[in-house]
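Trying the structure run again after the queue cleared.
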Amino acid sequence: MSGESGKRISWDEYWMLIVKDVARRSTCLRRQIGAVIVKENVIISTGYNGAPRGFPHCIDVGCRRDMLNIKSGERHEECLPPYVEVLTHRGHKKISELTPNDFVLTHNGRFKRVLRVISHSYEGETCVIKPKGLLSIELTPEHPVLSCGRCTECYGKSDWEWIAARDVERGYELIMPFDTRIEDFDSLSVPDAASDEIPESAFLFATDAYDATDAYDDAYNAAELPLNEDVLRLFGFYLAAGEVKTRYLRFSLPKELVDEVKHVIKDVFGVSVHETRDKGARKEITFQSNIFSIFSAIFGSERIPAELMMIHPRKQRYMLEGWIECSECSDAAAYGSGDTSYNSAARTTSRTLALQMHQISLRTGEIPLLSMHDGQYFLIWHHDSDDIYIKDGKLHTYVVQKRIKQFKGDVYNIEVEDDASYTTCSFVVHNCIGVHAEQNALIQAGREAAGATLYVNSYPCKICAKLIINAGVKKVVMSGEYTDREGLDFLRKAGIELVFL
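Done. Tokens:
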């Protein structure tokens, strides 16, 4: 930069001086970076590195990258593949399908709002972590996982910390919070399309919502199924071995359950059995009525509605037990294991239902081992599962396997209000909280960034470089250096003019 008296500085030097002032707003403890986007010698936007809006800053709570021993310029892409499920206030949902309308379960055992969904393309290694009794989760190597960082011999004796997935080792303890909310009620609303088929004897009038005069007139609109032991067990039977086709409800049941199902269907719906067939050790029974469309409406394709996921666990136990009793998983060979020390086991081809039944079992205080084999999901309740346990609404388990694989495609992360964490279907992970100066400036500039010049007192990382390219920036002026030089290669390949001051 010129120091000659009376000589005017260049535009590039002028804008870079402003960049240094912008950088002074940074809340990063490692390095203060500023960025300015200029078009036709007019500032379009500015940005500096730090936490997203509404998140605690590193100057207040410390640097998470320091805590994880992440070197400068490394491991920015903290994300998960699109198919990883996250536990929301309405059940498990693929991370790629989350929106700011969702609330996710955090490491503090509470549901907090999703503020933003982040995605970008990624090609490289991912870690696949398998905890005992849970499904494997795939994530980028740098993504932080909540662990005590110790083996099972240290259970309850070590502090919990965020550990990068690549540093998680076999035997490390993990936690998985589960939904402990209870919104109990004694009946389930019947879909309008089927309510006029239910006999009046089965109606439960919502007297707290209707006065005595209106109750009779609105009977069909207020029709509800009682959530007693018989109906909840029937729900379990249906989820395990029931189906509805047109006007027919059909079960394939162990013979000892046939009379129970006949009784409940007759008592609640007023319908007698239509047909019975022997199927070896099981018996197929069929009922005929338009009323049975409600089973499809309530359960869809093998999934439990959110309302039933929050009723009191003592009621959920009836549904769970009915599902287990009606399952065809009657021996260890059914789930590909020679182990015979289990109490009971159940299986389904529905991943959603398996995750829901796993949640329900945890809510009742029972710990099943969840696994997948040959395209089916199995829940197995063992006699000897003392090495995983429940404490304060969280399942404590440990890593039994970790492997590395290659991934190419879009990866996702989310920003979560306050707690900056979320629960996958197997353990808790952190969200991304650092935003680079270039990213903030590009967000503010929007479409105006096309054709503009970006000034920054560092080299852009490879993630920022991709955003700069896609934003249509034509020139990048830099001062200082950055450990990761791959971003410069991206910019050069895209034909963006690079100037170093």
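DSSP finds 13 helices and 26 strands in the chain. Worth checking whether this holds up in the mutant runs.
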